[in-house]
Amino acid sequence: MIRGRFAPSPTGYLHLGNARTALVAWCVAQQAGGQWVMRIEDIDRDRSKAEYLTANLRELRWLGLTWDEGANVGGAYGPYEQHKRTNLYEAALEQLEQHPNIHLFNCYLSRKDLRELASAPHASSSTPVYGPAERELNAHLKEAKQQAGKQPSVRLAMPDKNISFTDELAGHQIVNVAEAMGDIVLKRADGMWAYHLAVVVDDIAMNINQVVRGDDLLTSTAAHLVLYEAFDAVPPSYLHVPLLLDENGERIAKRQGGYTLTALQESDVQPERVLGFLAYSLNLQPHLEPMELAEVLGQFSLERIPKTPFQLTSEHLAWLAS
Ligand code: GLU
Predict the structure, then answer these.
(1) Torsion region of 147: left, alpha or beta (phi above 0 gives left; psi -120 to 50 gives alpha)
(2) Which among 190, 314, 305 is positioned nearest to 258, based on CA atoms?
(3) CB of 158 within 8 A of CB of 226?
(4) 8 A C-beta contact, residue 266 and residue 25
(5) Ligand 1, residues 9, 197, 238: which to mutate, most atoms within 8 A of Cβ?
(6) Does the beta carbon of 7 lie inside 6 Å of ligand 1?
(7) Whole-model pTM above 0.70?
(8) pLDDT by residue (tens digit) across 263-322?
(9) Ligand 1 pocket test: which of 11, 15, 28, 41 has the largest number of ligand atoms within 8 Å of its C-beta?
């Protein structure tokens, strides 16, 4: 039995890009006759808001998407809100601490330390990963930071190896995890759990065997696979959906407001228009026409989904609002 999931972070309203990924995830699970689980990734207690959780579920329902299990529905694998699952993350961290091939360490570096190191003349990349230079600085400053009472984060010393996997859309991937991801945080200095640990622990615990999500997480998958191996668990199949870009070719962010489902609903856009636009952007229909959810599912085929990002234009937005 296929068990897929959608895992929104209730840090804002869902935008068209989130909806597009949710639609693909839903269609893939439906076509396989599988189950679809709604998990709420609300471990970031500063940014997650109960009102957004309510809104996100309403937004998905507005499109007609329903889930078999999860938030507001319940099921055998609950609780479905990550902030209620921290005992599992604690146990997982302990398991990793005992693991013969996994090395965890306390990191005392602040964001400022990391930023300064990254802007040093020798720094090679604009998006620095935590690597040897950071480890060295951490070792150097550790004692002073401990004495000053600084709480550490817990990081995983990423093995220097290539991880390969096959994404159902993007194809075969080979990622050097140390270079691409570096020593990822598992538990933050403020005690909050990090996404990379929680997502793997929950997908394993909830028996998820199909992960559909935005392709901004394609590289992170390699780090997740390091954790699957450490937990001796079978990884799910992965399908990363290329992103929807705004009119300027930038990735759409929730804070941009205008592209959220709630904003569209408030301006009286019909859900069939949103579905029609999403289906068009996914190459499931040749023209912009309103569509029912059942029709989208009928047209859905993985082969048709574009492997490149889709850029929104002002014409699309005008059509949505027409
Ligand atoms: N919570 C993540 C997000 O909202 C999704 C992560 C995942 O699907 O693995 O972007």
Answers:
(1) alpha
(2) 314
(3) yes
(4) no
(5) 9
(6) yes
(7) yes
(8) 999 999 999 999 999 999 999 999 999 999 999 999 999 999 999 999 999 999 999 998
(9) 41
